[in-house]
Design a protein that fits this description.
Largest sheet: none
Number of strands: 0
Oligomer: single chain
Strand content: under 5%
Helix content: 55-70%
Radius of gyration: 19 Å
Shape: globular
Distance between the termini: 50 Å
Order of helices and strands: HHHHHHHHH
Number of helices: 9
Structural class: mainly alpha
């Protein structure tokens, strides 16, 4: 895979922009301008705007995967690991809102891979995270681990989106700090999909 300094600089600039300004800022010309190159230069490495966005999103998935590995490492039971991953997922969404939004905009991303690139396709780089969740959910005793993991993921994604948009804080009201309220929502999602935690 071509890991030229310019290619990496374009991705770095895109990561900085999406982190600071959200997905709306990610125009190809603006990324090129901030990287200090002509607006046509990115085409050498990214044949389409979508392929550059995909490379930026892949960085987000790598970051989230590393956070998952760190969060789950110290947990003893599969249920504890699922809770750690779920909490990490929602926390990442709230901390990295622009990147999180980009990562799940498959309508904007090029999931087919780049022409002439031997790098992984975006979907191929995201599936291992879901497979990890399916494996843990299976070890928690779910009858249909894949469907249960998908439903749990959808629930957590909804919590992240609704919290980030201000809807959940509005209906839950003021009071306890954000971390405590989000932890309670994560716990409720786990109970709903995996059954109550054994005492």
């Amino acid at each position: 895979m071509d890991e030229s300094p310019l290619r990496e600089r374009l991705i770095d600039v895109g990561v900085e922009m999406v982190t600071a300004e959200g997905t709306a800022a990610l125009g190809l010309r603006e990324i090129a301008r901030r990287a200090g190159v002509s607006h046509g230069a990115p085409r050498r490495y990214f044949p389409t705007h979508q392929s550059l966005l995909s490379a930026i999103a892949r960085r987000g998935f790598a970051d989230l995967g590393a956070r998952f590995a760190a969060a789950g490492a110290g947990q003893a039971t599969p249920r504890e690991r699922v809770r750690a991953l779920a909490t990490t997922y929602v926390a990442y969404a709230l901390e990295q809102r622009g990147m999180f939004e980009l990562m799940f905009r498959h309508d904007l991303l090029d999931s087919t891979g780049q022409e002439g690139s031997d790098g992984p396709r975006l979907r191929e780089s995201t599936r291992p995270l879901f497979a990890m969740l399916v494996g843990l959910v299976s070890r928690c005793g779910a009858a249909d681990p894949q469907v249960t993991a998908a439903a749990l993921w959808a629930n957590l994604h909804g919590v992240a989106q609704l919290w980030g948009a201000g809807s959940l804080p509005l209906v839950l009201g003021a009071g306890t700090d954000t971390g405590v309220r989000v932890a309670r929502l994560v716990g409720a999602a786990l109970d709903a999909h995996l059954g109550p935690e054994p005492s």
